[in-house]
Design goal:
The complex is a heterodimer of chains A (about 775) and B (about 110). Chain A has 24 helices and 26 strands. By secondary structure, chain A is an alpha+beta fold. The radius of gyration of chain A is 55 Å and the shape is rod-shaped. Chain A starts with 13 loop residues before the first helix and ends with a helix. Chain B is of the alpha/beta class and about 110 residues long. Helix content of chain B is about 35%, strand content about 30%. In chain B, strands 1-2-3-4-5 form a five-stranded mixed sheet. The relative contact order of chain B is 0.18. The chains are: A alpha+beta (about 775), B alpha/beta (about 110). The interface between A and B is medium-sized, with 23 and 17 residues.
């Protein structure tokens, strides 16, 4: 819709409007439109602009000019009034306020706004004025001021009628003609554009303000940077994250200056350059994946884990990338928890990997120095009550040497009131942040000490107890230097956990070693220190306990003299492992030695042992025993064999056969009565009597397809020296169990002494 | 290998008896399962408890002890205790220790006791 009068001239531009104006008026008409142009362009404030436009019409084009606007609700209100006489303008404003125009009424302004078509009321009489009148005071006003001629032009922009611009000539002035109408319409068209621009601008400004408010208050940190790397916007969260007080600190900084305040590392600890940041990549036209970075504020050592995401902001006109928005997501708490867990898992692996505690501490120190701080030292309380540095680590060898020198020359004593001694005494972890020169000076013992401490350059120190369940074994010290990151309470928590876990692990290792020592002592009590020398007989034993150091075995053997010239060979196996089995083993061994003083017959001795075991525990400590009473008879020996649930011994050689000897007897300690018989055999020269425990045949259980054929094995080994023969059999048994026998393996061998054989043969 | 995999114990009740069918290996690692199984059957009112050893592939001294511990519990409850013969290796151990002389042996778990 255009705002042309009836004859339909197109008035799209000022020139054509001006051409319709009377020649003598053209100059001022052009001047008016030019001036209107500059007024409309001068300001973005709508009221000021329209007041200006209305004012331009006075006095040449109008005695009174009103601009009315229709608002969103559809009602009409006056926005600007200008009049030649000041009283008239204010009187009209007053009337509009008191008697607002009825948007649906017959007032020509309402009509023009509804229709979008201009109206020219060249000469108005009382009747026409009546149509204008909203109320009697309004009529009085119009009559009083002498309304004569009126033009009302719609304010049309983008097809919408925004309002109307009215010009009025009062009594004494000329009536309006078509030329005036064209001019007013053109003025109205321009005013309409200005109004729309102003409204759009206001709207845009509101949107922008809203957007900015949203950005500012977002929890996520956002910055906008231009191609030169200058920051043009930063919200509050960004300032907090970057540790800045005001946006100006950022926006006025040189490109890259902000980044230089931080040590920016990737996840693996490599320092990142500005060019590697996602925003720079985008400007270079490269894809920019979100980047996880570790920021350390150089000045304070504070650490942040941040995910940086960059998105381009395109210029709407040119489609070119003018800015990049960076969104920084602070993932520090999550990342730290994750790292702490990973660290503890690694520490647990280290602690579980070795029972050698000095080695364990060295590895823990290396791990902690790498992950938590720059230095890590471990001090333990020695048996003499003095502190002992068991591990220290720093990646830089010269700094390591410094730490070692410091410890060598100024090792703290336990009575000192602060530092490691205090933590060990109290069992309470400590953190010292931002250690000052004064604090160092107070702590130092002398000038040299102070010099070394200064050279270490410690900023933060954490000391945690090496806490075993019942006591503090020592302390772990973590130190961050001035160049490293700050140690915070979260690190203290991790360190405390490390101290607790390491303390527990070391205490277990110590107890394990202790238990192994006890086990070895106990084991010696169960077995003879050495075998006796028996005239005319050769005797050997081998014993291989299952497990490592700490399990006391259930197998036992013994050799002792009994009665007149007789020797008792004992081999046995107590069911089970550990201290209970060991106590039964000891009981069996010593009972047999004791009863041997009263009773010479092996079967009788076993019955007595059975009775003792049953008395001790009716529900049974089960024990198998083989007793062989040996009497050397010069070149041969008489054997009396009694078995109680025990595998029969083998009589090996001199030919290629091995023969089990003895009769099966009831195992001891389980059930009454026991039936035990004695069998007599002769041991000849070049024969071997082989006693063994069930660990020997049982070893083959791991590989049932390869049964240990003990009889053939011993027959094949019969020509070896006795100790070598036993070693060969043990070896084969271990091998048949794939190297990991499940039971103790004990062997006892008896031969006629070769010299005795020799004597005999020479005597023949 | 867990004790469960190593030794499976199926409990079955006959007219006059409770039968524990042992399949697998009875040794230090699995002896506790037998003790528990027999202990759990405390309240079952039967005259005879049978350990069916036919499925037993291995028995060691600890397993042997467990069988006799079960026997003591059963006899204390005034029940009769019987076993079926195990594998050759099992029987060898029973005869080596002469404990077979202290066990009432029946050919099958449901066989009539002498």
């Amino acid at each position: 819709m255009d705002c042309a009068p009836d004859r339909g001239a197109s008035l799209a531009w000022a020139g054509s409007a001006v051409s319709e104006v009377r020649a003598e008026d053209r100059d001022w008409a052009i001047a008016l439109l030019v001036e209107a142009g500059s007024v409309l362009a001068s300001s973005r404030d709508l009221t000021t602009t329209l007041d200006g436009v209305a004012g331009l019409t006075i006095p040449l084009l109008a005695d009174l000019c009103v601009i009315d606007l229709r608002d969103e609700s559809g009602s009409i209100s006056e926005l600007a009034v200008a009049a030649a006489e000041p009283g008239v303008a204010s009187a009209l404003e007053d009337l509009r306020r008191r008697f607002p125009l009825d948007a649906d009424g017959e007032h020509p302004v309402a009509r023009v706004i509804r229709t979008g078509r201009p109206e020219l009321l060249a000469d108005m009489g009382t009747d026409e004025l009546d149509a204008f009148s909203q109320a009697p005071p309004h009529m009085e006003f119009m009559l009083g001021t002498g309304y004569r001629s009126v033009i009302i032009a719609p304010l049309v922009a983008a097809g919408h009628t925004l309002g109307a611009l009215s010009t009025v000539r009062l009594a004494g002035g000329e009536s309006y003609d078509e030329g005036d109408l064209v001019l007013v319409c053109e003025l109205a068209r321009r005013a309409a554009l200005a109004i729309e621009n102003a409204q759009l601008y206001t709207e845009a400004q509101t949107v922008e303000q809203r957007l900015e408010a949203v950005l500012r208050n977002l929890a996520e940190a956002i910055t906008v940077v231009d191609e030169q790397g200058r920051t043009v916007f930063a919200n509050q969260a960004a300032l907090d994250l970057l540790k800045l007080d005001s946006p100006e600190q950022l926006t006025s900084a040189e490109p890259g200056a902000t980044m230089s305040r931080f040590l920016v590392l990737d996840e693996s600890g490599r320092e990142l350059k500005l060019e590697e940041m996602p925003a720079r990549r985008l400007f270079r036209g490269e894809p920019a994946e979100p980047l996880l970075v570790r920021n350390i504020v150089r000045a304070t050592g504070e650490e942040r884990w941040v995910i940086v995401r960059a998105s381009p902001i395109l210029d709407p006109d040119m489609g070119r990338m003018r800015y990049v928005a960076n969104v920084f997501e602070n993932v520090t708490p999550v990342k730290r928890a994750q790292l702490a867990e990973a660290f503890m898992a690694q520490a647990s692996r280290v602690l579980a990997s070795s029972m050698d505690y000095a080695d364990t501490f060295r590895r823990i120190a290396r791990l902690a120095a790498g992950e938590l701080a720059d230095w890590c030292a471990v001090d333990v309380l020695g048996e003499n009550g003095a502190l002992e540095r068991v591990a220290v680590h720093h990646d830089d060898p010269s700094m390591l040497a410094l730490a070692e020198e410091l410890d060598r020359r100024y090792r703290p004593t336990l009575d000192e009131h602060t530092g490691v001694p205090e933590v060990i005494r109290t069992g309470e972890a400590r953190i010292f942040n931002d250690i000052t020169a004064e604090a160092l000076a107070t702590y130092a013992r002398d000038e040299e000490h102070l010099r070394l401490l200064r050279e270490m350059g410690a900023r933060d120190v954490i000391i945690v107890p090496l806490a075993a369940p019942a006591r503090t074994l020592g302390a772990i010290t973590l130190v961050s230097s001035r160049t490293g990151r700050k140690l915070i309470d979260a690190d203290l928590d991790v360190a405390v956990r490390l101290g607790r876990r390491a303390g527990t692990a070391v205490e277990s290792a110590r107890l394990y070693t202790e238990r192994s020592r006890i086990a070895r002592v106990l084991q010696r009590a169960l077995l003879p220190d050495s075998l006796p020398e028996i005239p005319g007989l050769e005797i050997a034993a081998s014993y291989r306990p299952v497990g490592e150091l700490n399990e006391v075995g259930g197998d036992f053997y013994d050799v002792f003299e009994c009665g007149d010239g007789g020797w008792m060979l004992v081999i046995g196996d107590v069911c089970g492992k550990g201290p209970e089995a060991a106590s039964v083993t000891a009981l069996a061994r010593h009972t047999l030695r004791a009863v041997a003083m009263l009773e010479e017959r092996p079967a009788r001795m076993l019955e007595l042992l059975h009775r003792t075991l049953r008395q001790q525990d009716p529900n049974g400590q089960m024990c198998t025993v083989c007793l062989v009473l040996v009497r050397a008879l010069g070149g041969r020996a008489e054997l009396t064999i009694a078995l109680a649930g025990h595998p029969r011994p083998l009589l090996v050689g001199p030919d290629e056969c091995a023969r089990p000897v003895g009769d099966a007897g009831t195992v001891l300690g389980i059930v009454d009565p026991v039936t035990i018989s004695e069998v007599r055999e002769d041991l000849q020269g070049r024969q071997t009597l082989l006693l063994f425990t069930d660990g020997v045949p049982e070893a083959a259980r791991a590989r049932p397809e390869l049964p240990l054929e003990l009889d053939r094995l011993s027959a094949r080994a019969r020509e070896l020296p006795l100790a070598g023969m036993l070693a060969r059999i043990e070896q084969a048994a271990v091998a048949s169990a794939d190297g990991h026998p499940q039971d103790d393996i004990a062997l006892l061998g008896l031969r006629i002494d070769g010299r005795a054989r020799g004597l005999e043969s020479s005597g023949r | 290998m867990s004790a469960e995999e190593q030794l499976r114990i199926a409990t079955r009740q006959g007219p006059d008896r409770l039968i524990f069918e042992l399949v697998g290996e009875l040794d230090m690692a699995s002896a506790a399962s037998l003790r528990d199984a027999v202990g759990d059957a405390r309240g079952v009112d039967v005259g005879v408890v049978v350990l069916d050893l036919r499925g037993l592939s291995f028995l060691d001294s600890t397993g042997l002890k467990a069988i006799f511990a079960a026997r003591s519990v059963v006899i204390e409850r005034s029940q009769r205790f019987a076993v079926t013969p195990g594998s050759a290796a099992v029987q060898r151990l029973l005869s080596l220790t002469r404990l077979d002389e202290h066990l009432e042996t029946i050919e099958t778990p449901d066989a009539v006791l002498a």
